[in-house]
């Protein structure tokens, strides 16, 4: 009888444990991490005489900052990718995911302001520099993208450079696309750059 009683108590105790475990709610599965914004590929850049080569996506702001926008985007939440061709044409895309939409709007506004005043600041730093800067219009994609061109030259040495820039935003994500080469605006692929900018903003999310 004692062995039977012990066996019965063991079964009852085991049943209580099983019942108690059954009543404990299962731990919720961790939420999947949000997908990172997608960068441009080499094939999505404006057409060039030689193929584009895409560098790796790197965390943080570029070690060698951009002429017009250095120091504006925070390192936290920022990644960048550089591109180049064999004919001294280069490009860069920088993407920043801000903590809030309001901060993303503020960042986009600051980047646009930096581009709008870039040429004047460059001339102050180097009085021998000449150039022209133009706002090339808005692209209606997501929260919008804005395109700029800056044409610079050093008459004393006869060198000219053209840069195309854009700032776009999708929610709390801001991207800057830059393109540059030797030459003047007439030889720059402005329409191709606008297409690249549209692609860059469209595929952020």
Mean pLDDT: 87
Task: Give the strand tally.
Answer: 8
Order of helices and strands: HEEEEHHEEEEH
From the spread of the alpha carbons, the general shape counts as: globular
Walk me through what this model shows:
The protein is an alpha+beta fold and 205 residues long. Helices cover 29% and strands 30% of the residues. It has helices at residues 2-23, 101-116, 118-125, 190-202; strands spanning 53-54, 58-59, 78-84, 90-97, 130-139, 145-154, 159-170, 173-182.
Which characteristics define this entry?
about 30% helix; about 30% strand; about 200 residues; single chain; eight-stranded antiparallel beta sheet; 4 helices
What is the topology?
Elements: H1 2-23, E1 53-54, E2 58-59, E3 78-84, E4 90-97, H2 101-116, H3 118-125, E5 130-139, E6 145-154, E7 159-170, E8 173-182, H4 190-202
Antiparallel strand pairs: 1-3, 2-3, 3-4, 4-8, 5-6, 6-7, 7-8
Question: How would you sum up this structure in a few lines?
Answer:
With 205 residues, the chain is an alpha+beta fold. 29% of the residues lie in helices and 30% in strands. It has helices at 2-23, 101-116, 118-125, 190-202; strands at residues 53-54, 58-59, 78-84, 90-97, 130-139, 145-154, 159-170, 173-182.
């Amino acid at each position: 009888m004692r062995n039977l009683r012990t066996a019965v108590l063991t079964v009852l105790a085991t049943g209580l444990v099983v019942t108690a475990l059954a009543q404990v709610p299962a731990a919720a599965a961790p939420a999947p991490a949000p997908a990172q914004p997608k960068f441009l590929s080499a094939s999505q850049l404006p057409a060039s005489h030689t193929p584009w080569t895409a560098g790796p996506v790197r965390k943080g702001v570029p070690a060698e900052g951009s002429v017009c926008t250095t120091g504006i985007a925070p390192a936290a939440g920022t990644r960048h990718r550089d591109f180049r061709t064999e004919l001294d044409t280069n490009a860069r895309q920088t993407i920043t995911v801000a903590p809030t939409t309001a901060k993303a709007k503020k960042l986009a506004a600051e980047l646009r302001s930096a581009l709008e005043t870039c040429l004047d600041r460059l001339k102050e730093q180097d009085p021998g520099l000449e150039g022209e800067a133009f706002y090339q219009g808005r692209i209606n994609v997501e929260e919008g993208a804005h395109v700029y061109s800056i044409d610079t030259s050093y008459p004393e040495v006869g060198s000219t450079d053209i840069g195309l820039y854009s700032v776009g935003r999708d929610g709390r994500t801001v991207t800057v696309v830059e393109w540059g080469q030797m030459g003047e605006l007439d030889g720059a692929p402005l329409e191709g750059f606008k297409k690249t900018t549209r692609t860059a903003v469209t595929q952020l999310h």
